[in-house]
Design a protein that fits this description.
heterodimer, A: 267 residues, alpha+beta, B: 161 residues
């Protein structure tokens, strides 16, 4: 695509994260979390821990696994997912033995979205720190990448999704039978390169939610996930850049032009 | 076999989230643990048993210094089989390799199909059809379509008998 990537001065973005999954590190044990944190603690002084996220791989051509036939074999407790958080609670690093995340989120409405280039640079820099720790012990082998944009879009009433999203129509009119309360939908897309080779998937999810004081919003999440586009960090970042372009172009296409005025579309 | 499945209908894992956002609730049956007790294909039960036995092998199980099999490889085998097999597909033989991989293989109905599973994203596949003379030898990563086709052919012949 040669036309410029759409850009908004005031996008409804609430969170962005970049994540890389890799072969489970054999030598990353419980003491490693503290040692890694030493390298981040000046900027990320707050620490929390959560259950790990499961491995995910985008594949094509197979049968979708029926959930009742999947299981895992573990004889020890799972290693946690550590959160290293900035003092202002806007930036986050997440680490577990097979995954690294770098998140930004908007913590107050006045805060400006720092733009993809800033978040990208933060991911590259902070992942390099993690990688330098790991490679003292073993080789880090990325096997999946993920980039996700989460938007919070205010709406007067959840039933008016057609004001935001081109995929919903006011033609859905059954109010003589029952009132629409809210709408949720999700779409999966396959991403291929120019030669038709499978690269990954784009997921769109639209869910109703409420802010404080019961203000209705729609949470519109766009995620691209797949294998790195080449070896090492370069292949990871090529995927992230491709994913970001897919997400932003898609977001501009699936949202109404009236909303683009509100978000001050520049390009 | 009963398997518990937890269903999460909120944001994907990995999100920071916001404390002041409440998602509208789905009906209870969609966001609680669901316990399932369905019919499980015969190949699945046999495969799980074989994998359990393989995971019980001690190091040097082949007397030539082979390492114990990594449970992650066994998980990768079940993931792959679940993605490619039909309910009535024939049961594979499942055997360990001295290099730590696990092989699922079929030698029946004029088909040789061997899948050496290395990880969830890498399996080496050899396929030979004695009737059509079709042969395939390569690595399967993200695109499972060739494997699904081989299993489809094998299953058709299995059911014709």
């Amino acid at each position: 695509m040669t036309d410029p990537i759409p850009s908004f001065q005031k996008p409804p973005l609430n969170e962005v994260f970049l994540s890389v999954q890799f072969e489970e590190l054999k030598k990353f044990d419980i003491t490693s979390y503290g040692k890694v944190w030493q390298r981040y603690k000046d900027r990320f002084p707050v620490v929390e821990q959560y259950m790990p996220v499961m491995e995910q791989f985008e594949k094509i051509g197979g049968r979708r696994s029926p959930p009742e036939l999947s299981f895992s074999m573990e004889n020890t407790a799972p290693m946690p997912r550590a959160w290293f958080i900035t003092e202002d609670s806007c930036e986050l690093i997440q680490i577990q033995p097979n995954r690294f995340f770098r998140n930004w989120r908007r913590n107050n409405p006045e805060e400006t979205y720092p733009r993809y280039d800033h978040i990208r640079e933060a991911f590259v820099s902070d992942f390099k720190v993690f990688e330098s720790f790991v490679t003292e012990m073993e080789t880090l082998k990325p096997n999946q990448c993920e980039i996700s944009y989460i938007n919070h879009i205010e709406i007067g009433n959840h039933k008016d999704l057609e004001d935001i999203f081109i995929g919903w129509s006011e033609g859905y009119d059954v109010k003589d039978l029952a009132d629409v309360e809210d709408i949720r939908c999700s779409v999966r897309h396959i991403i291929k390169d120019n030669n038709g080779k499978f690269l990954g998937r784009l997921y769109i999810s639209i869910q109703p939610a409420f802010r404080q004081e019961n203000k209705p919003i729609y949470v519109v999440e766009l995620t691209v996930r797949g294998m790195p586009l080449g070896e090492g960090a370069k292949g990871v970042m090529e995927f992230m850049d491709m994913g970001r372009e897919k997400i932003v172009r898609t977001f501009a296409k699936i949202t109404k032009t009236e909303m683009h005025l509100e978000w001050a579309r520049e390009i | 076999m009963t398997v518990a499945l937890a269903v999460d209908n909120t944001l994907s894992p990995g999100h920071f989230g916001q404390d002041d956002i409440d998602f509208t609730k789905l009906p209870k049956s969609r966001n609680t643990v669901v316990s399932l007790s369905k019919r499980v294909p015969a190949w699945h039960k046999a495969s799980v048993t074989a994998l359990y036995n393989i995971l019980s092998l001690e190091s040097n199980w082949d007397t030539y210094g082979a390492a114990r099999i990594n449970p992650k490889v066994a998980e990768a085998v079940t993931d792959l089989l679940t993605s490619i097999m039909q309910a009535d597909s024939p049961t594979p033989q499942i055997v360990p390799s001295s290099n730590g991989n696990i092989q699922a293989e079929w030698h029946c109905h004029n088909i040789d199909l061997e899948i050496e599973v290395e990880s969830k994203i890498s399996s080496h596949v050899y396929y030979y059809d004695h009737l059509s003379k079709e042969e395939w030898d390569g690595v399967i990563s993200q695109d499972l379509a060739p494997l699904v086709e081989f299993i489809n052919i094998l299953t058709r012949r299995y059911k014709q008998v």
